[in-house]
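Before the break, one more example. Copy the sequence into your notebook; we will annotate it together after we see the structure.
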Amino acid sequence: MKKLLLVCLLFVVLSAGAKPPKNQYVCIKTSYGQCIIRLYNQTPKHRDNFVKLIKQGIYNGTLFHRVIQNFMIQGGDPTSKDAKPGVELGNGGLKYTIPAEINDSLFHKRGALGAARDDNPAKASSSTQFYIVEGKRFTDGKLDTLEQTRLKGYKIPQWQRQYYKTIGGAPHLDHNYTVFGEVVSGIDMVELIAPVEKDKRDRPIADVAMTIEVLSKRQSKQLDKLLNIK
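Here is what the structure looks like once it is written out:
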């Protein structure tokens, strides 16, 4: 009995000392490859909702139903599962929204994971739909114009400007949609999906289905180490 008690106590001590990963990662798989996404801790409502839905299998079999080259690929509509060719998609979701978690430091750089939404004044996000930015590069002149038009006078920080000029993104979405993660591996999957043949609603002619899984704590800790996240 004493030995059993000691073993139990040792297990508790070791478990308590095991540090959890700093971040949660998920993997999106398609016939065009896969990508790994780090979910931001600064957007906990979106992070936790996304993880919950993935674990429930909500996304498995859904389509990337809207793709625009040099902009983004969008998916997560539950009604897209087994949808007939040519059917309009993008209006599906669960019966709730997620409060906006717009953060100045989380911007629409290349590979950003954002939450889709309708035109509601609170900028609350769709319960299920998301997009991944492919984006393009912008000049200072084009960024100046965006600041005065789409961004309504908001000044893009210089470090973000440099990113948009050299790597690219979709700056016109900043301050309007919640960014809650980023691709850390496999951006080529996005690049391959974005230019596929599509119909007038930007739905791919040949379905692009996905599965998403939450990576384990061990895998997430390994990625934290690999990405040098302290």
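The CA atoms of residues 161 and 223 lie 28 Å apart. Strands lie at 24-30, 33-39, 64-68, 72-75, 97-98, 112-115, 125-126, 130-133, 179-185, 211-214. Try to locate both features in your own notes.
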